[in-house]
Amino acid sequence: MQFITLVCRPGFESEAGQEVTDRAAYLGVYGYFQPLAPGLVGFMVAEPHAVDTLMQRLPLAELVFVRDWLVALGRVDLPKADRVGALCEAFLQHQALLPSCERVEVRLREDNNDADLGNFARKWVSPLARGLRDCGLLQVAEVPAGGRLEVLLLSFEQVLIGVSYASNRAVAPGGILRLKASADAPSRSALKLEEAWKVFIPEHAWFDILGGGKKAVDLGAAPGGWTWQLVRQGMLVTAVDNGPMQPALMASGHVEHVKADGYRWRPHRAVDWMVCDIVDKPRRTAALVASWFQDRLCRYAVVNLKLPMKKRYQEWLACQAIIREGLQAAGGEYRFVAKQLYHDREEVTCYLERLD
Ligand SMILES: C[S@@+](CC[C@H](N)C(=O)[O-])C[C@H]1O[C@@H](n2cnc3c(N)ncnc32)[C@H](O)[C@@H]1O
Asked: Other CB atoms closer than 10 Å to residue 144's CB: what's the count?
């Protein structure tokens, strides 16, 4: 039995597992999932090469509830003495199957509260890398192959070992993008939009997509964290919300505050960006974004879909279908991706872009 370790938001293990089970079955790979710990799920497959097939044909970027993953090699019990030696030995047993690796990453569970384990993880990387290099498991390649040895510290006594591939893993290990909250931002929600841009928009496209003094609409804008991000990109923003906006943000002169229902309000002319962070039924928000694209009211959008307490995966599938059908009816080409981001809670964030 081989398995992939899926990393997700703690509490969303079954959504991550269901999603990979469905997507793998679509590719002809049949397996089952098993929660391993909060935020960690094992996806088990029996057929040989099934893991390779998934790594080659299922891009992490297409998964919503899985923030990161690694090909698992197994659990290793750590002895009190010579932990490095024990790990070298464990990795060496799989050497024939390993890609060329330049680095080792030591990770912790997202819900780890043990500061001592955190300190140990940080201090352990150097001696571990040295040990792995000495036994030929890490090489400095002229053309980096992108393989990385992965060590997930479950406790002082046990680790999960694995390998990940640069072509199909999260940019930041665990999909955890730690962003600095600015004291000027009207709300912590500002970080969600910043993360969405960093995850969904490649760096080289930032100016085209975000720069150049674009026009934006922020639905459910108060107190203004997302509007603040849009203004920081030089955009002129219409902020739609019956609630109050932060006065300092309004003083920038870049924001018009419209007190109206975001589900009904429409701009007189098309804008570049629409963002929506209204807390309401996710299907309602999905239909809203689909209608904005059908009516060609914006070119780019980021919307948050707040998931209900139960049947969250099914709810996401229903929302996805509403948006897909809307885009199909609109005609043209679109990029539509979604993720449960690190700064998201019970929600997923969607990015849409009209390509024509
Ligand atoms: C999560 S908060 C938005 C936070 C905001 N993105 C920020 O960064 O500060 C949700 C907002 O949606 C607004 N809201 C709820 N229903 C709305 C509706 N139908 N139309 C417009 N705004 C609505 C609420 O007043 C609230 O301010």
From this structure: 14
- Secondary structure (3-state) at 352: strand
Distance 299 CA to ligand 1 centre (A): 22
Q: Which residues of 265-302 are buried (b: 16+ CB within 10 A; e: fewer)?
A: eebeeebbbbbbbbeeebeebbbbbbebbeeebbbbbb
Q: pLDDT tens track of the chain, all 356 residues?
A: 789 999 999 999 999 999 999 999 999 999 999 999 999 999 999 987 999 999 999 999 999 999 999 999 999 999 999 999 999 999 999 998 888 999 999 999 999 999 999 999 999 999 999 999 999 999 887 777 789 999 999 999 999 999 999 999 998 999 999 899 899 999 999 999 999 999 999 999 999 999 999 999 999 999 999 999 999 999 999 999 999 999 999 999 999 999 999 999 999 999 999 999 999 999 999 999 999 999 999 999 999 999 988 899 999 999 999 999 999 999 999 999 999 999 999 999 999 999 98
Query: Which pair of tokens denotes residue 239?
Result: 């902020």
Query: What residue ranges define each of the domains in the chain, with the CATH number in brackets?
Result: 2-175 (3.30.2130.30), 190-354 (3.40.50.150)
Is the beta carbon of 228 within 6 A of some atom in ligand 1?
Answer: no
Catalytic positions are 306
189 pocket-lining for ligand 1 (C-beta < 6 Å): yes
